[in-house]
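forwarding from the other thread:

> can someone predict this with SN-glycerol-3-phosphate?

sure thing
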Amino acid sequence: MNIKSNIVAILGTGVWGSALGAIAKSNSHDIRFWSHRGTDSLESIVKDAVIVLSAVSMKGVMATIAKLKKLNLSSDKIIVTATKGLDPETTRTPSQIWQAAFPDNPVVVLSGPNLSKEIARGLPAATVVASNDLAAAEKVQDIFASDTFRVYVNQDPIGTELGGTLKNVIAIASGVCDGMNLGTNAKAALLTRALPEMIRIGTHLGASGETFFGLSGLGDLIATCDSPLSRNYQVGYGLAQDKTLEQILAELEGTAEGVNTTNVLIKIADMETIAVPIARQVHRLLRGKITPVEAIQALMERDLKPEFCDIEFEITNE
Ligand SMILES: NC(=O)c1ccc[n+]([C@@H]2O[C@H](COP(=O)([O-])OP(=O)(O)OC[C@H]3O[C@@H](n4cnc5c(N)ncnc54)[C@H](O)[C@@H]3O)[C@@H](O)[C@H]2O)c1
Ligand SMILES: O=P(O)(O)OC[C@H](O)CO
């Protein structure tokens, strides 16, 4: 599909960075991996790269940026962020942090229903690359698109990023739902009511509401909330088995960003007085304040209300 080979630096060699690197490599691009635990210098990895893609977990974003800042990154390099998290101190998204650190570089968000283990197996999937700089997003689209990985562009980086980030909180709730065998009706109600919750927070933070109905919102919500491959789902499932959070995290392979994201989301909701009933129960559950049964009761016993009363959005695209 691609004719010209580009040098792509992938920062973070966890399962997602590795899977993304393998996709670009199969498109004949020259991939250079960097890990904070490895021996290669960051400078040598990013030196000739056209694209610098960060797939480090949220806890590594600030440290990685601090290292890159020392290297005087040229402003023509496209920074791609694939992290799905929120900064606990500032509540900012990774793309906001990257853009503030490198104001002259194009920053592109890559996010979608992308369980890395399925992608590593070459199963078909789709994703979104979003940026205020459309040409940069299209360049990233060109580099990663393949006949098994369909890449769409859009111009709502914050909405695209927040869809992938906020759904991790709901994936924990969904794991609880399945772990307690609450059935398909309960799961459908949970996911459907979660979407306006995500939209309320997202639009408050500057996202476009319609983005949440696309691949990076609804698409990723479905994928993550319905798959035992999701680490966030596994956290919820474990809580439903009466395991402690510490025990679950100790057994977990890789990062469950939803645990930190729940804390940041509640911080934002409390500061801005935004209703997030599902996330609030997840927060209480993670902190050991309530049991899964009490969380379900609290959600079911809330005051009755009209179904559509608190979000406004317009679908403008076909
Ligand atoms: N795994 C997936 O299916 C998937 C899909 C889409 C997005 N994501 C997101 O991508 C990010 C990475 O996910 P993953 O599954 O590869 O996680 P992982 O736990 O497998 O890997 C985390 C990576 O972050 C790096 N890291 C951690 N602390 C660091 C630090 N202080 N400095 C530099 N690097 C540090 C680790 O070395 C590792 O390379 C997460 O935000 C996740 O939500 C994951
Ligand atoms: O394993 P998780 O829970 O981080 O989920 C993976 C991705 O975010 C799904 O798109």
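Residues 7-155 form a domain with the Rossmann fold fold (CATH 3.40.50.720). thats all i got for now
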